[in-house]
Design a protein that fits this description.
Bound molecules: alpha-D-galactopyranose
Helix content: 40-55%
Structural class: alpha+beta
Number of helices: 11
Shape: globular
Largest sheet: 6 strands, mixed
Radius of gyration: 21 Å
Distance between the termini: 10 Å
Strand content: 15-25%
Strand order of the largest sheet: 5-4-6-3-1-13
Oligomer: single chain
Order of helices and strands: HEEEEEHEHHHEEEHHHHHEEHEE
Length: about 375
């Protein structure tokens, strides 16, 4: 890959003198969905697929960007004086947002750069290609200019840029999973205080399989923000009767005791998901540590049911992929992953069942939905690095 991107850099920007090459992963969340903006736990891991980049400092303030994933867009030019979001900037709003966010923290980017990217995360799949670009950009800026930031800061800066520059109200999970990734480990993160712990992913005789629905997200972002505000309203209602900072502070029993204060049935179900999913995540990690992969799988399945019925973020595409997976022998657990409304499912499948899984789930999906899903057997990888 390094040779390929250096060669392309040469082709696009003339030569590849004084360049450096980098990588930042994508991520998949194993369990703990829509809990990260509710003060709950998440359990994601970094993948060995992600975003590759080649960068070089410039002597002026110009920014020149090129993505091998959007070749038709050609070189997109900008400058450090123009760190404002725009439609024409397209995908470059992500790296520009991160440069802007560094500036907001008193770390002004001192000179322009040429940046070429090539990602092997399927586009728009919900495996966090945008967070991967954000963390990669932050990692390059730190390496180039010696900014005094930790990998955890890179996650926070990435999230800040996404929230305030790109105006997507996401939580911290994606950027954190990417910047703090560790080979063969998932990250058990408490989003209430950012304390975390690595947990080895030991799936003897099984692998993580991702099924990409190929459904375009469409309304996803607005529905995402809608879920967030439903949870915020439910929290405010609960706070009238119980002293909590977030829905993540509640266990199931306490929630049930006070749930009737939430005035709408819809909001009650949203809050119920946030509370129960957080507790499921805590239990799932405990099960994994005790080598009880079967219990981990059952909790993944329960997570999907809750996301489908109470949180209502699945849709026919993700439900089909998951429900077909559940029918098969050798599937330990299967659920939607990421924001939902399209994107991917994550399943733990026994080695000997993987081919049948891909064939059967793939065929059922195509016949019901009308177009094909893509399948990836993935590995858990490290955080960002210099190549
Ligand atoms: C998206 C967001 C995350 C998280 C998930 C849902 O991936 O970027 O912060 O909220 O959705 O768990």
């Amino acid at each position: 890959m390094k040779e390929l991107i250096l060669k392309k850099f040469e082709e696009v920007f003339g030569d590849s003198k004084d360049t450096k090459a980098y990588f930042a992963p994508g991520r998949v969340n194993l369990i703990g969905e829509h809990t990260d903006y509710n003060g709950g736990h998440v359990f994601p891991c970094a993948l060995t697929i992600g975003t590759y980049g080649v960068a070089r400092k410039r002597n002026d303030n110009k920014l020149r960007f090129y993505s091998m994933n959007f070749e038709k867009l050609g070189v997109i030019e900008s400058s450090l004086e123009d760190l404002v979001p725009s439609k024409e900037a397209d995908w470059t709003n992500y790296p520009k947002g991160v440069m802007w966010a560094f500036g907001e923290r008193g770390m002004k980017v001192p000179c322009g750069m040429d940046l070429l990217l090539n990602g092997n995360i399927p586009n728009g799949s919900g495996l966090s290609s945008s967070a991967s670009v954000e963390v990669l950009t932050g990692f390059i800026l730190r390496d180039f200019f010696g900014f005094d930031v930790t990998n955890q800061d890179l996650a926070l800066i990435g999230q800040y840029s996404e929230n305030h520059f790109n105006k997507v109200n996401c939580g911290i999970m994606d950027q954190f999973a990417i910047s703090m990734g560790k080979k063969n480990n998932a990250i058990f993160l408490d989003t209430a205080d950012l304390s975390y712990e690595y947990a080895p992913i030991v799936l003897e005789g099984a692998k993580i399989v991702i099924a990409c629905s190929n459904k375009k997200r469409g309304l996803g972002d607005s529905k995402y923000n809608e879920r967030r505000s439903e949870c915020e309203t439910a929290l405010a209602e609960l706070q009238q009767v119980v002293k909590i900072n977030s829905l993540g502070d509640l266990d199931e029993n306490t929630f049930e005791k006070f749930a009737s204060i939430i005035k709408s049935d819809v909001r009650r179900r949203r809050a119920k998901h946030a509370v129960y999913e957080n507790q499921r995540t805590i239990r799932a990690v405990r099960a994994l540590k005790a080598n009880d992969v079967a219990e981990f799988g059952r909790l993944m399945n329960a997570s999907h049911v809750s996301l489908r019925d109470d949180y209502e973020v699945t849709g026919i595409e993700l439900d089909t992929l998951v429900e077909e997976a559940w029918k098969l022998e050798g599937v330990i657990g299967s659920r939607m992953t990421g924001a939902g409304f399209g994107g991917c499912t994550v399943s733990i499948v026994k080695d000997e069942a993987i081919d049948t899984f891909i064939e059967k789930v793939g065929a059922a999906y195509k016949s019901k939905i009308g177009y094909a899903a893509d399948f990836y057997v993935v590995e858990v990888g490290d955080g960002p690095c210099i190549l």
